[in-house]
Structure of DUF4170 domain-containing protein:
Amino acid sequence: MSHGSNFWVIGGEFGSMNFHKLVEGSAQVQGPFKTRKQAEEAWKTVSEENRHRAGVRFSIVEEPSRQVA
């Protein structure tokens, strides 16, 4: 039996414009979302709320589905 993938919105404020390291305490995780569309809606909302902050970035990631015996 397999379960579907989960989607997450992750991100926060980065210390520089190369987006390699988050500013401590700024990490945000939203989810899990059962569909990519739900995750995209959450991403749009959080991105719009932070669009005036150039060092803030969010991404959608997919957690692989798991096989359950």
Remarks:
- Residues 4-61 form one domain.
- The beta strands are 6-13, 28-33, 56-63.
- Helices lie at 36-49.
